[in-house]
Specification:
160 residues; alpha/beta; four-stranded mixed β-sheet; two-stranded parallel sheet; 5 helices; 30% helix; globular
Length: 160
């Protein structure tokens, strides 16, 4: 059974989604690949206490890591990309090519980009930390302005 809740953040409202009480989605307003609202289930804040607490600590600059149980659904390749995203340290970036290399598939940078764009749990699975080969900001489901703000925040350019 799916449930959802909406919390405020410095980046606008965030919709948290759980499947049988386990986090499976975090979506921003206007996000590309955002499922329709009816797919989120009933509104209920019950399963989101720990996720909300960890997100608030992150936004306050008190925590750099998330330790949440998640139920991510995707292809085996997508799951492997999302796992690599979780290994990118706070405040750092990696290129799509570097992620492809880490997966043992150096020619897969475009596929990595596509999988990155389908990440269902933004911020917690830090797809915002992926940049182009030359360091330029490229695609982000939540918009490039949000991506820049998240990266600036993690690099210490200002707490919210």
């Amino acid at each position: 059974m799916k449930q959802h809740n909406v919390i405020d953040s410095p980046y606008g409202p965030l919709t948290l989604v759980a499947d049988d009480g386990v986090l499976c989605g975090l979506y921003m307003d206007g996000q590309r690949h955002r499922p329709p609202e009816k797919a989120f289930g009933e509104r209920d804040d019950t399963p989101f206490g720990e996720a909300t607490a960890q997100l608030r600590a992150y936004f306050a600059g008190e925590s750099k890591d998330f330790t949440l149980d998640m139920r991510l659904r995707g292809t085996p390749f997508q799951l492997s990309v999302w796992e690599q995203l979780r290994k990118i340290p706070y405040g750092e970036t990696r290129s799509y090519g570097e992620l492809a290399d880490a997966l043992g598939n150096p020619g897969a940078s475009r596929a990595v980009g596509l999988a990155n764009g389908k990440n269902p749990v933004g911020i917690i699975v830090p797809c915002h930390r992926v940049v182009g080969a030359n360091g330029d900001l490229t695609g982000y489901g939540g918009g490039l302005a949000r991506k820049r703000r998240l990266l600036d925040f993690e690099r210490g350019a200002g707490l919210f």
